[in-house]
Fold:
Amino acid sequence: MARYGKEFRDRAVARLLPPERAAVDVVARELGVGAQTIERWLSDALSEPSRQKVWTGAARFDAVLSTESMGETARNAWCRANGVFPQELAKWRQHAREALA
Structure:
């Protein structure tokens, strides 16, 4: 039975989530891992409390774009719903601006 590290599993699951949203069978075939295994990893990741979820760079950038035009109240509500501290979101925004500069 093959064992895969957390980083490998997190990267596989990240491909299934927005913005990429790759199909399970495609990811499974590309990685040489069974589709049922990939589905279990996804299920495990989605069942974790939000604070423990892995935010990929693309997901962070998407969060920054989604919340940029929101007022403080709406942004704070978004943060609560997605398990992100407002300070984290501000840090992601700053990193995005630095990367684009």
In short: DSSP finds six helices and no strands in the chain. The two ends are 46 Å apart (CA to CA). Helices lie at 6-16, 24-31, 35-47, 57-67, 72-82, 86-100. The first helix runs from residue 6 to 16.
